[in-house]
Amino acid sequence: MDDIITLDYGSGGKKTARLIQETILPRLDNPALRVLGDGAIVPLEGPLCFSTDSFVVSPLFFPGGDIGKLAVCGTVNDVAMCGGEPKYLSCSFIIEEGLPLETLERVLDSMHRTCESAGVRIVTGDTKVVERGRGDQLYINTAGIGTLRYPGLSPAAIRPGDAVLLSGTMGDHGTAVMLARSAMAESNIISDCAPLNRLVERMMVIGAAVRVLRDPTRGGVATTLNEFIEGTGFGIELEEDALPVTPAVRAACDMLGLDPLYCANEGKLLCVVAPEDAARVLEAMHSTEEGKNAVQIGTVSSRFPGKLTLQTPLGGRRILQKLAGAQLPRIC
Amino acid sequence: MDDIITLDYGSGGKKTARLIQETILPRLDNPALRVLGDGAIVPLEGPLCFSTDSFVVSPLFFPGGDIGKLAVCGTVNDVAMCGGEPKYLSCSFIIEEGLPLETLERVLDSMHRTCESAGVRIVTGDTKVVERGRGDQLYINTAGIGTLRYPGLSPAAIRPGDAVLLSGTMGDHGTAVMLARSAMAESNIISDCAPLNRLVERMMVIGAAVRVLRDPTRGGVATTLNEFIEGTGFGIELEEDALPVTPAVRAACDMLGLDPLYCANEGKLLCVVAPEDAARVLEAMHSTEEGKNAVQIGTVSSRFPGKLTLQTPLGGRRILQKLAGAQLPRIC
Q1: Which of A77, A190, B101, B108 is deepest in the core (most CB within 10 A)?
Q2: Would the CB atoms of B41 and A48 count as touching at under 8 Å?
Q3: Contact A125 B52 (CB under 8 A)
């Protein structure tokens, strides 16, 4: 193999075959990949959850993760948020000519480790190579499928009085990537990038009246909560004091002019649950690594219909809208 | 809406929501897209065929198609080649900052028309925006799922004596894109880009002993046939006289220094079938628009194990290897 990936690795001919056979497949090895065709045949019962995301994060490697880990977690989490049990992923690479082969290998190894930890398999894929200046090293798309285990999760199920839970601190991913980009060496912020399917399983299996789950990625917690209440007759009231943010993330946000409420997370989820079940669900969350810092951050109410509001410690209240503008490009 | 897509359309915030709500969803409209979450819930029975491709074709529009039509056909065809009935697609856009909104709209309209004609639905998606110079206008990924209808299609089922069928002329897509790129105005070559799922259905429903199906995209017919026989005890013998190529494609290939046997096709399939069933399968193919020019192009034999050979009209025979080098970058 060459040291770098050249255009002929995307030709569909001999070099593409070598890249797949010698570099990609050994690293993603699993039984479904041992018979190659135009796609994979997988045993799954319907109904299914089906989701996709493309990942264009810059830089490719950052504290706590890399584009490969992100590409697996992002799609695993989307399937899990729909109430599905993520099982099989597709994986497609758009490689910029000149990418060091070693970079691709590191990303593949990371994808494999993340798949193992999430209990999912990459079963089909594709590789394209574009000319220098037509990409940015590596873009990855994953799509994921899994059997629907918990039907009915939807913002439409939310009711006034419901509790709003967050599985941990806000903004760790977004600030970790931003700091990695600006090469600030002293940062100790680590991306929260993690598969959440086991956390979801733990929360759902207890039979609580969970209304909706969603991972607040691009746009952050404030944007996702706005999506829940848009056009409805109720609002969500957050307590500023209850919002979990590490001191390091808070300091980084102050410095970068960001608001943790709008920063991307890649290993956190928001859960709206009936008030009588909130304590049980929090307890289930606390029993997992991914949810050990889960807290209730707010309540659904009908006082400010369609609005997400933040109660400050001094008694003020402000409206939080969806993210406007491009606070954080290329964060995932 | 703005006239061009700027970075904030990829923020995950207000502009992303507007792009999705006002531009993308109305054009791809179908019931599954009317309830948006992190993914789609679809009714499908297993086992499933699951496939993905990323599309990076340049230029975005070419005679006979565009990147949107290609993105739907490519994945529909991959699922169909596995013996699946393609049903649901995911669709993910990587947009370069500055793309005219009107370009995206044209592509979306084309995707919608192609989905209608193939009988599939886009049910989930994603949109990312990258800075100028980090992409090339638009890259699209699709993944597709469908119930497995015809199990057992595999090169491992091929036997000496089997007939090798091709559903129509070779090289139309590859040459159409190459000519569009070099802006040669006088070309009358039109990409063969088409969904093949109905052709496959027609071929399979008659109960013939079809061994394997595959669409010869990147790398062309010669590369795909090499993949069938690699490491086996048999070879495939092609008859040069039987290879269908239009005069226009032949002339373009001569001019561009290409070989139609290695040119990409996006609406053709190769079929290996038991000799006694070849005529029936050809008849079924001829009853469809996509297969009306189907012919037998060769035979599986044990004379030259592992080799694809071409018998010339003058009695010579040459070995056709897999595509080496990057004959045609960014063709799909």
Answers
A1: A77
A2: yes
A3: yes
Q: Tens digits of per-residue pLDDT, A122-140?
A: 999 999 999 999 999 999 9
Residues B165 and B97 placed together within one structural domain of the fold: no
Q: Which residues of A touch B326 (CB under 8 A)?
A: 6-8, 10-11, 13, 15
Domain that holds residue B238: 155-319
Indicate if B63 and B103 belong to the same structural domain. yes
The answer to whether B126 contacts A53, with C-beta atoms less than 8 Å apart, is yes
Residue B109 and residue B166 in one domain: no
Q: Check: pTM over 0.80? Answer yes or no.
A: yes
Separation in Å, CA of B61 to nearest CA in chain A: 17
Boundary (domain end) residue, out of A98, A132, A148: A148
The verdict on A144 and A96 lying in the same domain is yes
Last residue of a domain, one of A130, A148, A166: A148
Of A35, A151, A323, the CB nearest to B12: A323
Q: Which of A34, A42, A50, A95 is most worth mutating to test chain B (most B CB atoms within 10 A of its CB)?
A: A50
Residues of A in contact with B223 (CB under 8 A): 12-13
Q: Give me the pLDDT at residue B298, please.
A: 97
Q: Measured between beta carbons, which residues in chain B are less than 8 angstroms from residue A268?
A: none
Q: Based on the structure, what is the number of domains in chain B?
A: 2
- Chain A residue numbers with beta carbons less than 8 Å from the beta carbon of B78 are 38-39
Residue pLDDT, tens place only, A257-285:
899 999 999 999 999 999 999 999 999 99
**Higher-scoring residue by pLDDT: A169, B1:** A169
- Which range is least confidently modeled, B38-42, B184-188, B313-317? B184-188
- Whether A324 is covered by a domain: the verdict is no
